[in-house]
Amino acid sequence: MARLTTIEAEMLTYAAFSFFPESEKWSLNYIYTALSKPVELPGIHEFTAMGLMNDNQIDYYDSVAKKKIPKQDWMREKLPADYWEKGTQSRKSKEQWFKVNVNILMDRMKHNNTDVHILQWKHGCEIDRQNDGTLKFIKGTDQYSYDGDDFLAFDDASMQWVAPVDQALPTKRKWDGVQILNQYTKGYLEKECVDWLSKFMEYEEKDFSRDDSPPMVYAFAKKAKTAEHVHLTCMATGFYPKDVVMHIKKNGVQLTKHDGVLSTGVLPNHDDTYQIRMSVQIPEADTDVYECYVNHRALKEPIVEEWDGKCCDCYQKTGVIIGAVVVVALLLILVASLLLWKRCKICSGNVAAVLNMPVRKDDASSTSSDSGQGSNECLEKEAMLKNEGNGNVAAVLNMPVRKDDASSTSSDSGQGSNECLEKEAMLTNEAIGE
Q1: If DSSP codes are grouped into helix, strand and coil, which group holds residue 356?
Q2: Cβ-contact 69, 60 below 8 angstroms
Q3: Is Glycoprotein found in the keyword set (predicted)?
Q4: More confident: 365 or 56
Q5: How far out from the chain centre does Cα 90 lie?
Q6: How many CA atoms lie less than 13 Å away from 93 in the CB half-sphere?
Q7: In the prediction, which pLDDT does 398 show?
Q8: What is the DSSP letter of 349?
Q9: What are the structural domains, with CATH classification, of the chain?
Q10: Of 306, 294, 282, 289, which Cα lies nearest the Cα of 232?
Q11: CA-to-CA distance for 93 and 409, rounded, in angstroms?
Q12: How far, in Å, CA of 177 to CA of 412, rounded?
């Protein structure tokens, strides 16, 4: 199957490190995914479409249910039945558009139907909400991918389509030839998308006025691929709102990207809270003091969690070796005892005592066992923390891929007034091919 596209990769952006920022970023995106043929996997459909606000799913459609449905209570309560009916018809049209175009691209790429091929489309906008409540447009996104590779993207500044591969040039020429549609796409990204995002923000905040939630902070390390090194990870989870500051400190000094610090960025959990992880590779024998520093508006003072110097899985091999040595030693005792028994039956009582004696672990082995238990607890904790965001991650990985044309975008966010433009766009562009 095709690899993931940069669309999904965009959801792992680097976290901003400013606390109580002067603005707050919001985004609204629609993502469509079409497969060239069905796959026998649960939850994976031939066509899927969904809306995402701040990477949280707000609506959904697939080729089995064939109905656009709300995924948030405030969407269900605030938007009328007419919105969902028109949205369902719009996505049914897009489903047919994708069926045609994934086949066109397979022919253009000289691919057969033996493997599964994927056509995706993402469009939407990102804004900054200033402290005074005004919204500032940051960027618009309108891009397609095929089998995990970027295929076509709209340049908002020049109002032209950008073709990163030769196979996309015929489509670029065709779509750039209808400038009114490019003007419409720019207008949608910069104005209409922002208007709908503003409306959705208002709906959500009135319906979902949850209290601030402070982060839980964890520090742990796992063995790195580099010999005699570990990956030290700081994790904060369960916080709301999403703005957070996290640093890894060494002896009180903040480490940066230049020191090898990596971040997942802020990711959503299944319960509308957020999480973030940062990690850095350090020598296993390092005796410096490492701390996870986290600040959030729900905290009275920052949390500083010091790493205890333990590694989750560094001692497992040592424990196995020590255990093997103990077993070998016991076998040697057993063999020696049996030899003695053959030579002198009087020793049988002692042999029996040896064979029945409880096995004692020396200090090293018991340390290993304790480390192993600690290791399992650490790994289980990490797995549990990672899984908090799995609902959203699974949704992202199963999400459909992209749009039909500039018009289809419009009908997803606000159907009504854009129906004519959508029909015009679909009739004009018809398909990706000539």
Answers
A1: helix
A2: yes
A3: yes
A4: 56
A5: 28
A6: 21
A7: 34
A8: H
A9: 6-209+398-429 (3.30.500.10), 216-314 (2.60.40.10)
A10: 282
A11: 12
A12: 25
